[in-house]
Amino acid sequence: MGFSDKLLEAQQVLELLKIQELRDFTRNARAGGKTSGIALARIEEEILNKYGTLIVFGQQVYECEQKKCSTLSQLRDQLDVLTQKFQQDTNAFRKTLQDRLAKDPALLEPEQLRSTAAKIVTTEPGTVLIYPLVLKDKIRILLASRAGEKGVVFRSFETPVNQLQLWKTVNQFRTQLCSPEDLREVKATSKQLYNWLIQPLEKEIKDKNVHHLVFSLDRSTRYIPMAALFDGQQYLVERYSVSTILNAGLTDVKERLPHNKQEIRVLAMGVSKAFPGFNALSNVPNELATIIQQSGKAQQGIFPGSEFLNENFTFSSLRDNLTGNKILHLATHGKFESGRPENSYLLSGSGEPLTVDKIQTLGNYMSDTHLVVLSACETALGGVDADGLEMSGMSFYFLTNGAKSVIASLWLVNDASTSQLMQQFYQNLSTGQMTKTEALRQAQLAMLKSNSQGSDSNRSSVNYKLGHGEQSISRNLSHPYYWAPFILIGNGW
After folding, report:
1. Cα–Cα distance for residue pair 113/102, rounded to 1 Å
2. Cα 298 to Cα 117: distance, rounded to the nearest angstrom
3. What are the E-state strand segments in 338-463?
């Protein structure tokens, strides 16, 4: 049995949980206390004593492989023992797997089981993958990091926080984030969540070679903007670039956006008119004009592409113009219904719903689509059993139909702050020097460290006002309410 085959048995339980939860949510089956951690085995203790962390050990394996050093066989032996130890630990997950599995005869298809953490952590040096699994009486956290050129090493941690306690704290954090008042309260709650979810891993991820954290979140942790977790001195985004995946199997990490911005065409579509139940989005015309380069107007617009506004934004125009565009930018209202994803939709320029069923048919035309930027309505945290899947539900349909990544928001976003954030994101992306995740991070940091002012107006769409003249109020945009709602899901590179 090869190394990748050994890893498959160790990781498939968590991957099955992620896939099954998404299938249940999308109905796609037809298609705290002090953290003590898990006791270390003797082999783990020996490695930690020698190398300091498992990440350093994995780097040592990689460097030895590159140099073909004399100790390579010994290092691989240690890596095999660690893998076997981790396989034994995963047995604790099996009862959870059995409890959560729904009736889905397609669940155990072999191609679904081939998704491994290796393709994520070996995509780019310094990347780690973090799985928090919320159990009834604790949080089990899996950290996957690079070991060798194509391998991965795992470490497990436990936090003695029960599901109800976690949910209450996440609910409190969400409430505080959506009302940008007392930053001290936000930081205190964020610090508590940091202590539960990140502090157990600190010794591993504080290694100087780690710079990109990829999260595959579970249950109520999906409601958390991980970039806004606070360690008492800094937010997580100040130390790392942060992205999210729905699960490793649904993440295509092979492709990159071209470095030359003239090779990145953007299809921008929007709605500015009012419809029953939806207010007018008067800034959308300026938004589209600012993103898209106009013929003969070299000073305007960031990327080449085309725009469709109001009546010109229909399902047919979306479908017929997708091919050849690397980015799809949707500036419109959206409704995302928890528990009934088939009722979720985006609003087209005619007022007709762009339903989930219609989005699923776009898979025939999205082969060129690398990034989708879309709206996400404010979602209230449900009861203690809330799994947060509505936060990633619409993204799921785009990701499973060809898109490599999605940017979405976790709550109602502020007009002025979002305008600044998104303008900076697109400018960063256009340099060709940053990954999508880093472009978003740098835009967030610029806002976090600025003294810019925001406005009182909110919206439930991706209505980024990129123009001038926004009425300001006396609020500093360093509050995470302004910069933290947008998350990147999928391929962050």
Report:
1. 17
2. 44
3. 345-347, 353-355, 371-373, 405-409, 413-414, 458-459
Do the beta carbons of residue 365 and residue 322 sit within 8 Å?
A: yes
- Asked if the model's pLDDT at residue 253 lies above 50, the reply is yes
Q: Please identify which residue in the block is written with the tokens 């090869």.
A: 2
State pLDDT tens for residues 446-488. Answer: 999 875 444 444 433 333 333 333 333 335 688 999 999 889 9
Rounded to whole angstroms, the Cα distance separating 291 from 304 reads: 8
pLDDT tens sequence across 131-154: 888 888 999 898 888 887 777 888
Computed on alpha carbons and rounded to an integer, the radius of gyration of the chain in Å comes to: 22
Contact 145, 118 (CB under 8 A): no
Quickly tell me which residue has 């990140």 as its tokens.
198
What is the C-alpha to C-alpha distance for residues 4 and 60, in angstroms, rounded to an integer? 19
Encoding tokens for residue 282?
């008067």
CA distances from 107 to 28, 101, 218, 363 (A): 11, 9, 18, 22
Q: Which residues contact 238 (CB under 8 A, 6 or more apart)?
A: 445, 448
